[in-house]
Amino acid sequence: MPIPAPLTELVEELRPLDRNERSETLLDYADHFEPVAPEVALRPFDERHRAPRCESDAYVWATDRPDGTLKFHFAVENPQGVSAKAWAVILDQTLSGQPIEQVAMVPGDVLYDIFGRDLSMGKGQGLLGMLELVTFEAQKRLTERRVKAMREPGAR
Can you spell out the DSSP letters for 92-145? Predict the structure, then answer.
């Protein structure tokens, strides 16, 4: 199953950029970061939403949209967490509102397509942790739908 079109398009846009252009583009994404709204989550944030291995103390939430897709929300507690902020904006802009079957299958290597192959191991692991929480939320919704469908009258 393909990854969501907006994410594919972003990867294609970043592919020809050199390292400096890519960095500038990612800094621009980070500048557009908006922390999670208080209607979604309040401090202190529940540790279940904390991205594993993320040195920037990033948190991820997903809310259900009426059309069956998800809206992703993020907090990045480290003020120097520029890469985490950029990644949060990218994940929201490219995966919110997309088919959850596709969101659930986004591979971790897309991270390197966006940030480049010279991404440090530590930073890469934290950003991957954020993606894992996003895909987990999509997978959880898919499982909930399957269980609900099995419980409906006439299901086998």
Answer: HHHHTTS-HHHHTT--TTHHHHHH-TT--HHHHHHHHHHHHHHHHHHHHHHHHH
The pTM for the full model equals: 0.94
Give the per-residue pLDDT at 152.
Answer: 83
Phi and psi (nearest 5°) for 152?
A: -70, 150
**Which residues are CB-neighbours of 30 under 8 A, at least 6 positions away?**
82, 83, 85, 86, 89
CB 53 within 8 A of CB 129: yes
**Cα 141-146-100 angle, rounded to 5 deg:** 35
Residue 1: pLDDT above 70? Answer: no
CA distance 100 to 85: 22
78 with 88: CB under 8 angstroms? Answer: no
Domains of the chain (ranges, CATH numbers): 5-151 (3.90.1010.10)
For 87-124, the pLDDT digits (tens) are: 999 999 999 999 999 999 999 999 999 999 888 888 99
